[in-house]
Specification:
Number of strands: 6
Low-confidence stretches: none
Distance between the termini: 52 Å
Mean pLDDT: 90
Radius of gyration: 18 Å
Strand content: 35-45%
Largest sheet: 6 strands, antiparallel
Strand order of the largest sheet: 1-2-3-4-6-5
Helix content: 25-40%
Structural class: alpha+beta
């Protein structure tokens, strides 16, 4: 028998918490991917969900661990133990009118919820051959640090912030 890795432990706790909220009717799980990249020896877990009563805004929670993260955990005498964790990304996806004030309000809203220490990136896409008044947007939230296994409780608290963000983004679009 072997000990599960920090990545695996964080994934299981996060997945359980999200499925509990799905069963309670708070959110709807839309998709899930558990990926292993054999070329780079990395792992990535993605789970996409939305508010039950939302209007098309979804969130994908991404947990990533590279080879250096795993080796830092398994061979702590060789690597820096500060690398024994996983990277967390939160990506919101939505469609709305292409309006500069709306982009700015959304950015201010997320900074208000998450704080200015995070990096927010908004990417929009549209078909230039069609009416581009409606765009598809991806807002990526990067924490600029690794999450370690002893910070699992922070991941669970993060879910409250994500659900709050989904509700407020939905309200902004209404």
């Amino acid at each position: 028998m072997f000990d599960p890795t920090a990545f695996e432990n964080m994934k299981v706790v996060l997945e359980g918490a999200l499925y509990d909220r799905d069963l309670q009717g708070e959110i709807s799980i839309l998709d899930r991917n558990d990926l292993i990249n054999l070329a780079k020896l990395s792992r990535q877990y993605e789970i996409t969900f939305s508010n039950r009563n939302g209007n098309g805004v979804s969130c994908t929670f991404i947990l990533k661990a590279a080879l250096e993260n795993l080796s830092a955990e398994l061979y702590s005498n060789v690597k820096n133990e500060a690398l024994a964790g996983a990277k967390v990304l939160v990506v919101f996806k939505l469609e709305h009118e292409n309006n500069l004030k709306l982009h700015q309000k959304m950015n201010a809203l997320l900074i208000d919820i998450w704080g200015s220490e995070r990096t927010f990136t908004q990417k929009i896409s549209y078909n230039p051959l069609e009416d581009c008044s409606i765009i598809t947007k991806e807002i990526s939230l990067d924490f600029n640090r690794l999450v370690l296994e002893d910070q699992i409780d922070d991941l669970l608290m993060m879910l409250d912030y994500i659900i709050d963000s989904l509700q407020k983004i939905n309200s902004l679009l209404s």
